From TrEMBL:
Gene that specifies this protein: lnt
Protein source organism: Vibrio algarum
InterPro entries on file: Apolipo_AcylTrfase, C-N_Hydrolase, C-N_Hydrolase_sf, LNT_N
Topological category with respect to the lipid bilayer: Multi-pass membrane protein
Name of the protein described by the UniProt record: Apolipoprotein N-acyltransferase
A Pfam family per the record: CN_hydrolase
The keyword Cell wall biogenesis/degradation belongs to this UniProt entry's keyword annotation: no
Entry keyword set: Acyltransferase, Cell membrane, Membrane, Transferase, Transmembrane, Transmembrane helix
EC number of the protein: 2.3.1.269
Domain of life: Bacteria
SUPFAM superfamilies: Carbon-nitrogen hydrolase (SSF56317)
Length: 505
């Protein structure tokens, strides 16, 4: 009986360690937890079988994701129309699926590299963690939330973001954590030299200005936070009150260069409101202002798109439904914007028939949205978590990253705050300010170093006014993308697998 309890102790501890990882991210931002958590995880899988390690990894994932993305349940439970038991079951399925990835990491580590060699700690563990993170960000369109690198905005490791993005920061975390774990296991303090060197060098990197301010891009913005109730948003009786609310707030801010409404601010199909949009276009043009808004569009084939539209002072001239340039969302949110296995799932529960849950995707790389002579690389809501997509949409003309969102689905949870943290990382990686307009928060603007320079409170009807200057030049990340991380993966896997092969002989 004692042995049975002993075997359960590590998985139980792993769940608590996984749950504590949430403290590293917004709104808590205790960034050392992102280093401590993997240390404890690595120690917990030490000297156990690969099967036992997989279970420990699964429990770590259950703790991490059940707490870290608990906000997902709010959207399912409050807006999904499902019984409490069914919504909890769906949440358990999601968390269990995401927990497979840390289970794979732990199982493969102990299966392929069971000995306490330097290869295990300096090469195998960091590379296998990265590989499972990459898989989680790709399978079934991907869900790369809670990547450890996002927690390091205030730490010296953030200096790596302009070089190799959030994944390079994650790599540095794992190298540091794994080296410290090796120190505990081998009782050799000399292993602390590597984390010391990494932190010292990245502290120096933070002082490098990869890009410089471009005063010619000085732009005044007015971001409209309508604070529209999600329960009422798509009710026909609320359509015109919603439109008038946004329009009234815009009229008193026509002196801004660019007025921005959030994702799907217009609670109707674009084709249903041609006269309204034409009038808004004329008003903005008369005031020499551009207005950017989220809207749902339908093409000639009948496909729906979650889109971004520019009115007023634009190169395309007067608004014309047939020819107006639009950005069409590429990365769609599973179940929210498209339903996998729809023929099977839609009959099961109303949740799978949420309004606008049958979108089609736009291209991965699209032309920048243009307003008032400014160029915006656009990411709609969920898309801001895909750093490589954002990078590919930035070209030599891009002045700002624009992200429109509606986080009203998630109430007063930690979800919107984590979402903003991710947007800040995109600015730091690319050296481009992020303009983020949302329905009820977090509406904010960052500078090209990822620092929030203007923000308004959540859950209030307000307008964020700010003047922002973009940058000129390119960060190494814009040029190289994830290649620094990929090179490490290739080298470490070659070293690790060579060591594995020699050990098997």
């Amino acid at each position: 009986m004692t042995n049975k309890y002993h075997r359960l102790l590590r998985p139980i501890l792993a769940a608590f360690v996984g749950a504590s990882t949430t403290l590293a991210f917004a709104p808590y931002q205790l960034w050392p937890m992102a280093i401590l958590s993997p240390i404890l995880f690595i120690l917990l899988i030490h000297k156990v079988s690969s099967k036992a390690a997989s279970f420990i990894g699964f429990m770590f994932g259950l703790g991490q994701f059940s707490i870290g993305i608990s906000w997902v349940h709010i959207s399912i439970d409050t807006f999904g129309g499902m019984p409490k038991a069914a919504s909890l079951f769906l949440m358990i399925l999601l968390v269990s699926y995401l927990s497979i990835y840390p289970a794979l990491f732990a199982g493969l580590t102990n299966r392929l590299f069971p000995t306490d060699s330097k290869t295990r700690y300096l090469f195998a563990i960091p590379s296998l963690w990265l590989l499972t993170d990459l898989a989680r960000g790709w399978v079934m369109t991907g869900f790369p939330w809670l990547l450890l690198g996002y927690s390091q905005l205030e730490s010296p490791l953030s200096g790596l973001a302009p070089i190799g993005g959030v994944q390079l920061i994650t790599l540095a975390i794992l190298v540091c954590s794994s080296a410290i774990a090796w120190v505990f296991i081998k009782h050799k303090p000399i292993g602390l030299i590597l984390p010391f060197i990494i932190f010292l060098s990245t502290y120096g990197l933070k002082s490098i200005d990869w890009v410089t301010p471009d005063k010619s891009t000085h732009t005044s913005f007015a971001l409209i936070q309508g604070n529209i109730s999600q329960e009422k948003k798509w009710l026909p009786s609320e359509r015109w009150p919603t439109l008038m609310k946004f329009l009234d707030l815009s009229r008193i801010n026509w002196d801004a260069d660019i007025v921005i409404w959030p994702e799907a601010a217009i609670p109707a199909l674009e084709k249903e409101l041609p006269s309204f949009l034409l009038n808004v276009d004329k008003a903005a043009r008369m005031n020499e202002t551009a207005l950017i808004t989220g809207v749902v569009t339908q093409n000639q084939l009948g496909s729906y798109h979650n889109s971004v539209l520019t009115l007023g002072d634009t190169p395309s001239g007067e608004y014309n439904y047939d020819t107006q340039p639009r950005y069409k969302k590429h990365h769609l949110l599973p179940f929210g914007e498209f339903v996998p296995f729809a023929d099977i799932l839609r009959p099961i529960a109303p949740f799978f028939n949420l309004p606008m849950s049958s979108f089609s995707r736009g291209d991965l790389v699209q032309d920048n949205i243009v307003g008032k002579g400014r160029y915006f690389a656009t990411a709609l809501c969920y898309e801001i978590i895909f750093g490589e997509q954002v990078r590919k949409n930035i070209d030599q003309n891009t002045n700002f990253i624009l992200t429109l969102s509606n986080d009203a689905w998630f109430g007063d949870s930690i979800g919107p705050l984590q979402h903003m943290e991710i947007a800040q990382m995109r600015a730091l990686e690319t050296g481009k300010p992020v303009i983020r307009a949302t329905n009820n928060g977090v509406t904010a603007i960052t500078d090209y170093k990822g620092n929030i320079i203007a923000q308004i409170p959540q859950f209030k009807t307000e307008v964020l006014r700010a003047e922002v200057t973009s940058s000129k030049g390119q960060t190494p990340f814009l040029t190289l993308g994830q290649w620094p991380m990929i090179v490490f993966l290739i080298v470490s896997l070659v070293v690790s697998l060579t060591n594995f092969a020699l050990r098997r002989k």
